[in-house]
């Protein structure tokens, strides 16, 4: 029987250092237990039995590194995920944002685009999409390329339709996409105002001012220091009285930035900047 693959804490730190030094990706402040599990999963997929083999591949094969980053980054997402959150956006947040002549929204850690597509549909139904600019960023270039094409697995659309209806949607959800083989393609008219770009929350800076920042189910993979850095980044990226949306398992309660926000909806983790 093959021994289970393991990577020691020391070897994991060497991998983190190698990736930072050679490729500029900084995983130094990612939660170690989660990062270790994901690195081991990558080693299993790649057939790397030891940390030495992994480091050798990362050092000598750029294509392997691209695959490693794609496999390492968490890509758990869905359209209208947590319908109660989207219902709150629909009923409470978007009516407040409707007064802006141009509405700028940042989806940080957008993965393959399902959540930003959901936002575009909400904005369309609220009559706001034509004056909205959505910025969708992610660490993983492969995620962004898939998102640019508007590709969503067709097998998921039944679940996404249910999410949409629970969020308060009343249109025919199938009118928002075209089925093509095993994929659904989100219509271009709902993607035309989305800008996709690479952005690393661990190292990159403020790049615009937004009325709404959505970063859902990303902070749970960061340690406390990086969480505080990212929350400061979001606070500095928000327009006065701008909104911040986090994931259902995330909170500002223990954040150094908590005093900069009022709670709009504690149940679905929506906050508003005091400044």
TrEMBL record:
Highest taxon, organism lineage: Bacteria
A GO biological-process term: methylation
Protein name stated in the entry: Protein-glutamate O-methyltransferase CheR
Any Pfam family matching the protein: CheR
SMART domains listed in its UniProt record: MeTrc
Keyword field: Methyltransferase, Transferase
SUPFAM superfamilies listed in its UniProt record: Chemotaxis receptor methyltransferase CheR, N-terminal domain, S-adenosyl-L-methionine-dependent methyltransferases
Domain CheR-type methyltransferase: residue ranges: 1-274
Molecular function terms from GO: S-adenosylmethionine-dependent methyltransferase activity
């Amino acid at each position: 029987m093959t021994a289970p693959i393991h990577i020691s804490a020391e070897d994991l730190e060497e991998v983190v250092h190698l990736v930072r030094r050679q490729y500029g990706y900084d995983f130094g402040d990612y939660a170690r237990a989660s990062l270790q599990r994901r690195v081991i999963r990558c080693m299993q997929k790649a057939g790397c039995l030891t940390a030495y083999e992994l480091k050798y591949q990362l050092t000598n094969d750029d294509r392997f590194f691209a695959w490693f980053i794609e496999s390492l980054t968490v890509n758990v997402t869905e359209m209208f995920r947590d319908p109660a959150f989207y219902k709150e956006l629909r009923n409470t947040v978007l009516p407040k944002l409707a007064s802006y002549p141009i509405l700028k929204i940042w989806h940080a850690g957008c993965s393959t685009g399902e959540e930003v597509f959901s936002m575009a549909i909400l904005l369309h139904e609220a009559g706001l999409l034509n004056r909205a600019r959505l910025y969708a960023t992610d660490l993983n270039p492969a995620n962004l390329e898939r998102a640019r094409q508007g590709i969503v697995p067709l097998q998921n659309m039944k679940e996404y339709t249910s999410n949409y209806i629970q969020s308060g949607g009343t249109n025919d959800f199938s009118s928002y996409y075209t089925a093509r083989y095993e994929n659904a393609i989100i219509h271009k008219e709902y993607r035309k105002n989305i800008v996709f770009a690479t952005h690393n929350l661990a190292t990159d800076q403020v790049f615009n001012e937004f009325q709404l920042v959505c970063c859902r189910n990303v902070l749970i993979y960061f340690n406390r220091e990086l969480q505080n850095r990212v929350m400061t980044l979001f606070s500095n990226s928000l327009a006065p009285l701008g909104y911040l949306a986090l994931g259902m398992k995330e909170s500002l309660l223990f954040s150094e930035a908590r005093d900069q926000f009022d709670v709009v909806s504690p149940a679905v983790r929506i906050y508003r900047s005091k400044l």
